[in-house]
Amino acid sequence: MTESWTFAHMTDHHLGSRRSYRFREDFECRWRSVKRQIAESGAELLLVGGDLTRDGDTHEFEYLQAREDLDTLPMPSFVIPGNMDVGNKHTEREGPREARSDIALNMTSERLTLFATYFGPIFWTFMHRGVRFSGFYAAVAGSGLPEEQRLWRFLEHLTKLPPVRHHVAMMHYWPYIESPDEPNWDITKPEEYLPWYFGIDQPYRGRMLDMLREAGVTDLLCGHVHTGRPPEELGDMTIHRAPSVSSTAQMTDRWDEIETRVGFQLCTVREDDIDVQFVPSDDQCEGEMVVWGPGGHPKLHERDYSVAQEQPPLAPDPWLLESTGR
Ligand SMILES: [Fe+2]
Ligand SMILES: [Fe+2]
Known about the structure:
With 326 residues, the protein is α/β, with parallel strands linked by helices. Helices cover 24% and strands 18% of the residues.
């Protein structure tokens, strides 16, 4: 009998900056509380499931800030990007929301590469105490970017590794919203926009899930929606859809069983399974907080950086306008 040990998983802490056109002190307050709890949890390592930033896709500064912040924790952290860090899942059609251009929000290779200079490769796998840990940004699938080919090669590689008792994978997006064989949601329909936004489309979803099963993944960790759901068994794999560390739960009217409190997951590795427990933030930070600027994905030319409360204000990274048309 091997002794049990723990690791932590957190996702979507969306740390922003007072030098920005938008800021939420409640996000910062919750992260501060969760960070202290993680530091004191005894976890041997920390998995960070993406959306570390509020606007990392346009402010390189937020990568630096997030990296330095994680490095003050007493355990090593292993990071994948989220869409707020590197851009969204690709679309060739615009969604119904006036305030954003979905096409302009498509992730770019430039941003994925820049992210990797701060946090390491966007696809990784390693062993710790006999457990395999694998991380990848699933939304690369279907992008047609060079990184997509690397993703499929990486997943193929996972299927050829020696079998292990526990294999934990982390991917930011949910693989599906309701069921693994649901049809693709239509980005142009207002009622299907959010399910489109949060899940992975076919045929990539099926291919990915097949490869994860073949790779012996026992536990799949997801974030992105900011709403916790009960664990779901898919064959031998358990899907854990985690709430955010700091941010507002979304699609909450869709299901009865949801977790809308913020917090992180403490995962105990035992002989036969991994026990994933949600640990709510000690402080949900619901008091009066400083908040400014819009939510969502505002266009670059509509951002007002003069409202920044700390100087000098940030600005969108200069090459972005030309490369993405945002
Ligand atoms: Fe998020
Ligand atoms: Fe996200």
